[in-house]
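User: Predict the structure for this protein chain, please.
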Amino acid sequence: MTNETFDFTDHSHRRYNPLTDSWVLVSPHRAKRPWLGQQEAPSKNDAPEYDPKCYLCPNNTRASGSSNPAYANTYIFPNDFAAVKLEQPKLVESKGDTLKNRLCKVESVRGNCFVICFSPKHNLTIPQMKLEDLTQVVSAWQTLYSNLAKEAREEGKPYKYLQIFENKGTAMGCSNLHPHGQAWCLEAIPTEIAKELKSFKKYKDQYGTDLLGDYVKMELEEKSRLVLENEDFIVVVPYWAVWPFETMIVSKSKIPSVDKLNDREKKNLASIIKELTIKYDNLFETSFPYSMGIHQAPLNAEGEALNDSWFHMHFYPPLLRSATVRKFLVGFELLGEPQRDLTAEQAATRLRALDSKVHYLEKL
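Assistant: Here is the predicted structure, written as structure tokens:
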């Protein structure tokens, strides 16, 4: 032990994530070490507005042989290579209390997957889209959520949870650079969402309030991790963030799911998404990669699942020091627990200082 005063910007510590009941190791002093590891190529968006070889551009033929219509705004279609299927044979489960049945559990899962083309223009990304066009994307999310919930209620389709997400950039495994996201609808609640719902219930049972409602209140008071704010939403670098410039968009009021957004909230959500992603691109003056996803109430949720849900979005970007140096979750992160070299407060300070209105390409 030393006589030094503990410094959160220089001394290692662990931070608790109440959403998933887990911990992250923070080692801010490691940010000073020289980097001699892998460097990615800077991302350049020099694609044409229309690519005749792109499976997602209007009028083009997809890999399945189906053709896209001449769509003019957001377009949704069933994924030609879906991760889950609606129709498949029934799984015959093994009976009896055997070691294999104890240790090798399995269950069938059905569902459907969708591709969401954000724009007909091949060379756009979310921060480059017009606000009215991005608002149409949010409307498309709402329509898809509502339609699938209705199909589950009225047609008996086995839909329980809709995971809407976007992988942007090759660094996050995106195989087609046309601006698009995905939506996977399963008859089971995915693990991460199940963890959050369990934590929401535990917190409410213990304190009588909503976890994210209290978190929004605290972040608005402290402001050290606040990146953006409008009438209905905030953007923060979560106190427990794992990725270097990870952020979370959280609704200020209790909104369980995207279909419950009114017209003002819908526009404000689109606006704050655009502002955040402009900041991301401006950070290292590159088309900033990330994985983004919406966490919300299960389809046709009732009781605790509905009452505990609070709309929020996670952004997980991999870039660490520059447009060419990315974060890897390896070693201790895989075998022990997640670790980061930049505190949430330091990341928020850098993001806050960036322009959220003008994209860096507009300044060239």
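The CA atoms of residues 86 and 227 lie 41 Å apart.
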